[in-house]
Amino acid sequence: MHQNPAPPPQPPSPGPSTAPRAAARAAAALGAGFLVLLVLVALRWHPLIAADGDVSGAAHRWAVRDREVTRVFRVLTDWVWDPLTMRLLCAAAAVWLVWRRSAWWTALWLAVTCAVATGVQQWVKAVVGRPRPVWRDPVDSAHYAAFPSGHAMTATVVCGLLLWLLHRSGPGRALWRTAVAAALVSVVGVGVTRVWLGVHWPSDVLGGWLSGALLVAVAVLVYERPRDGRRPLPPRRRG
């Protein structure tokens, strides 16, 4: 008697994503770190203020002495890593998501997160009201309050969100390493330029990094929460 062959074994179904738990732990740690720094800045904790002054003073002396480096840093901070440039990059990614993948929810999530980051940044600046460094021979100028650094926060948010979306699409090793390197250079580099140019204290930059990373973690939590009718980001087509 002829018997039909047994169906091939099926791979086990994947368990629940670990992304929400990892994002929740990251958000808790980053939130605690940012809250501690915020309190120390608001209370003008002397060791922090002294360290800020020492680092900023040394950086300003170098900026005055090395004018060529200062000019390069001004181009980088005003054009390459400027918050407007970062937001335009975010907008371009959102348009690409809609145009090439019809990922409307993901594009909206990306745009809204960047908009929220801008609002949070301005609100914290207004609440803390920290003065910027003042120099007799400034090499650059900036407006609004100092804490947190808007440049550092915006670069962290945009680079963090784009890196996470790229990781979900399953990039090749070379592309992933290149993207991570570019993001690290951008996030660290913009912080260095802001202190070098004398428009932020080091703790302002640290506050921008922490608050930006916190928003990325919260945004990942929001994205990964089950939602009826939401289409997951499709994998990148190879070839």
Descriptive labels:
single chain; 239 residues; mainly alpha; globular
Descriptive report:
The protein has 8 helices and no strands. It is an all-alpha fold and 239 residues long. Helix 4 (83-101) packs antiparallel against helix 5 (104-128).
**How would you spell out the order of helices and strands?**
HHHHHHHH
Shape: globular
How does the helix and strand content classify structurally?
mainly alpha
Percent of residues in beta strands: under 5%
Number of helices: 8
Distance between the termini: 46 Å
Runs in which pLDDT lies below 50 for 5 or more consecutive residues are 7-16
* Helical residues, percent: over 70%
Largest sheet: none
- The total count of strands amounts to 0
- What is the alpha-carbon Rg in Å? 22 Å
Average pLDDT figure: 90
Keywords: Membrane, Transmembrane, Transmembrane helix
Domain Phosphatidic acid phosphatase type 2/haloperoxidase: 106-220
Biased composition (Pro residues): 1-17
Region (Disordered): 1-22
